[in-house]
User: Which sequence fits this backbone?
């Protein structure tokens, strides 16, 4: 049995998914509010999240690799952020602006990176079905829940469909210019929408055939208990520490 | 409890004007396994959707056991009629195989332990219990077909309406599906172009074309009638073609 399933089993029996989702959101708020004011706090938050990842035996390496996706975005923002402090557009002026903003630049990278790690940790601990259930328990509007559920389920179908359409397109148009291809992809998007609608109709029929009444049923409906409250209290305490430090 | 299905002079016209069914009448007796044959566009799928109340007839009546197909009876009818769609991707919409198979029983309001037991039984019947936590999109096509059948079996329906259960399966997958179908105890209506499956498995057949029943009777009698089959864009099953030497030998 892998580390992931051990961690999931360990937590699944004790904490409701809505608790984990709420705790993650509380941590994110704490990290954003606390890390903004101090680089030390941002670093402390990062270390704490990494430690938590190790304690619950989640796949740290996989999480770190996935989290890298945020770096190009925040890296660029951080790179240009000191420009707002430039008083004189000379090399010396730029140097001064950058040297005065190193801490802020690092915070700017660390905060979103840590927040993403928190969310990835949540994904390690909860299945997609658990997360949907958590959102339902947290009163997310039903149509949004269904939308999320089907988006997850049909992303791969959509990808396959797009790949098939792309192959059909390029196999019959080897000499087509890129410009025309782009225009054709526009048409393709239109036909994909129509196909999606058709499939949606069929899926809806299949759901109706099995007694669908607007709710996504679930076998185990976990309610919040003492352990959940303790977890939320710990998350609140940690977030408060980050903000108040 | 009566487990027959009766269609009486059923007409159905789609919103675009297509007249899909033009006075269809037939009856399926309790426990019968019947094939529904016909060319593409004959009205087979429409007929099947009517059995579950996904579509409602414009005129005529559909009776499921003692229940007349009306809006008021829909929940009761959907409890009793299991519908398997041709494309398993239409049937499997939840995030795991287990959740998908549990969807119907949970909607029926069964207690958790019964749902658990029914899901396990259905998944074991189709040989997919080990894959219960997998996402449906990660299954092979044959596995998806079997999972789709499990979603219907878990509801313990009295009637099974199956649309092309063996289509697009490789020989091994097709054989597994046939083995599964052979074990079904319910009243079963199977729409298919797989005439070999019909020949082997289903004692009675109904042929429809252009929204009407054109023939009904013992399968072996109907499928031996080459004239009838050709008139409705069907062909002799392999057992007959190769047996009578009318087809090409696959090894040649």
Assistant:
């Amino acid at each position: 049995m892998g580390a992931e399933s051990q961690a999931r089993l360990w937590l699944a029996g004790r904490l409701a998914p809505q608790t984990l989702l709420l705790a993650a959101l509380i941590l994110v708020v704490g990290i954003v509010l606390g890390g903004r004011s101090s680089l030390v706090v941002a670093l402390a938050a990062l270390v704490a999240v990494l430690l938590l990842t190790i304690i619950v035996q989640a796949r740290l390496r996989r999480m770190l690799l996935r989290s890298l996706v945020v770096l190009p975005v925040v890296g660029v923002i951080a790179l240009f952020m000191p420009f707002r402090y430039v008083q004189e557009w000379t090399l010396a002026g730029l140097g001064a602006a950058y040297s005065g903003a190193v801490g802020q630049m690092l915070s700017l990278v660390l905060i979103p990176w840590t927040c993403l790690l928190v969310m990835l940790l949540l994904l390690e601990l909860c299945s997609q079905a658990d997360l949907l259930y958590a959102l339902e328990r947290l009163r997310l509007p039903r149509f949004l829940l269904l939308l999320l559920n089907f988006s997850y389920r049909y992303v791969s179908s959509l990808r396959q469909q797009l790949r098939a359409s792309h192959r059909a397109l390029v196999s019959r148009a080897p000499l087509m210019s890129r410009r025309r291809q782009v225009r054709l992809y526009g048409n393709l998007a239109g036909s994909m929408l129509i196909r999606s609608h058709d499939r949606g109709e069929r899926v809806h029929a299949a759901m109706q055939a099995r007694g669908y009444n607007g709710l996504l049923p679930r076998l185990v409906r976990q309610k919040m208990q003492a352990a959940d409250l303790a977890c939320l209290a710990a998350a609140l305490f940690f977030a408060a520490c980050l903000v108040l430090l | 409890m009566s487990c027959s299905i009766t269609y009486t002079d059923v007409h159905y016209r789609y919103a675009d004007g297509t007249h899909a069914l033009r006075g269809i009448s037939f009856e399926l007796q309790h426990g019968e396994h019947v094939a529904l044959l016909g060319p593409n566009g004959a009205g087979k799928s429409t007929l099947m959707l009517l059995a579950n109340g996904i579509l409602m007839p414009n005129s005529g009546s559909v009776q499921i056991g003692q229940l007349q197909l009306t809006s008021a009876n829909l929940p009761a009818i959907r409890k009793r009629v299991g519908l398997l769609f041709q494309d398993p991707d239409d049937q499997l919409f939840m995030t795991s195989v287990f959740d998908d198979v549990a969807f119907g029983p949970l909607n029926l309001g069964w207690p958790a332990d019964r749902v658990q037991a029914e899901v396990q039984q259905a998944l074991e019947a189709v040989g997919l219990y080990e894959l219960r936590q997998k996402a449906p999109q990660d299954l092979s096509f044959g596995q998806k077909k079997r999972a789709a059948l499990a979603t219907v079996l878990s509801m313990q329906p009295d009637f099974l309406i199956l649309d092309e259960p063996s289509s697009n399966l490789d020989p091994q997958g097709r054989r597994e599906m046939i083995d599964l179908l052979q074990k079904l105890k319910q009243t079963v209506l199977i729409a298919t172009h797989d005439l070999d499956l019909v020949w082997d498995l289903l004692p009675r057949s109904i042929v429809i074309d252009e929204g009407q029943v054109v023939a009904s009777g013992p399968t072996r009698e109907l499928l031996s009638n080459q004239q009838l089959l050709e008139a409705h864009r069907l062909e002799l099953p392999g057992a007959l073609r190769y047996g009578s030497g009318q087809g090409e030998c696959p090894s040649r």
About this structure: Residues 3-137+223-244 of chain A form one domain. The interface with chain B takes residues 127-129, 132, 149-150, 152-153, 156-157, 199, 202-203, 205-213, 216-220 of chain A (CB under 8 Å). Residues 178-209 of chain A form the longest helix (32 residues).
